[in-house]
Write a structure and sequence with these properties.
- The chain is of the alpha+beta class.
- Helices cover about 25% and strands about 35% of the residues.
- It is built from four helices and nine strands; from the N terminus they run βαβββαβααββββ.
- Strands 1, 2, 3, 4 and 5 form a five-stranded mixed sheet that branches. A four-stranded antiparallel sheet has the order 7-6-9-8, covered by helices on one side.
- The longest helix is centred in the first third of the chain and has 20 residues.
- It is globular and about 50 Å long.
């Protein structure tokens, strides 16, 4: 979660409190649609707040009316106009925070190895120039690999110590000057206790 302050930082404590309230509203809203949200970026000034946010909705389409209602709720929270800039991702692996949440949500239905198998062959290519449907356009950046690590017991495990750690990698790590790694973790609970899903998404630019 990132905040850009456009005024005196003496108000930092108040803004941070409002930001936490806004984040709670955002998470509750998208949870109703079985959707996952990335880390929002808040740009705050004296009369307006801009919220930039990536989200992934596997099945449900969120209507403009519902999004407007979210904007109204955030406006009441901040006490000033809120402008929403939402970007829907077509794959959960395009944002590490969203991907960690997505994998954790599926950890109750599939084993760790099954989760890795489901990821294989589905990693998207990120196209930064031209149309994603235009085969004549060469991608300038793409995902080269994903590393996943789970700490804690999953309900799909038959047995094992409470501090079980499982890890796996698909593809390769980003290398060189144009390689980047997007990392996030997400902690959730099941009937066996808490577990943490960590993901590293490697990307390479040409």
């Amino acid at each position: 979660m990132t905040t850009t302050y456009m005024f005196n930082k003496a108000n930092r404590t108040v803004i941070m409190s409002m930001q936490r309230q806004a984040l709670s509203i955002i998470k509750s809203f998208f949870a109703k649609y079985n959707s996952f949200v990335g880390k929002p970026v808040f740009t705050v000034n004296a009369d307006k707040v801009i919220v930039q946010l990536f989200y992934y909705a596997p099945t449900d389409t969120i209507s403009n009316v519902s999004i407007a209602a979210l904007g109204d709720a955030l406006t009441r929270c901040w006490g000033r106009t809120v402008e929403l800039r939402l970007v829907r991702l077509n794959h959960s692996a395009l944002d590490s925070s969203i991907f960690a949440q997505y994998l954790a949500a599926n950890a109750g239905k599939y084993s760790f190895n099954r989760i890795l198998d489901m990821v294989k062959g589905t990693l998207p290519t990120i196209v930064s120039e031209g149309s994603a449907d235009d085969s004549s356009v060469e991608p300038v950046s793409h995902i080269t690999g994903v590393k996943v690590k789970t700490s804690g017991r999953l309900t799909t495990q038959r047995s094992g110590p409470r501090q079980t750690v499982q890890a796996g990698r698909i593809g390769s790590s980003a290398k060189g000057h144009y390689g980047t790694v997007d990392y996030s973790s997400h902690t959730a609970k099941n009937k066996l206790g808490a577990f943490t899903m960590k993901v590293w998404i490697s990307q390479q630019s040409r």
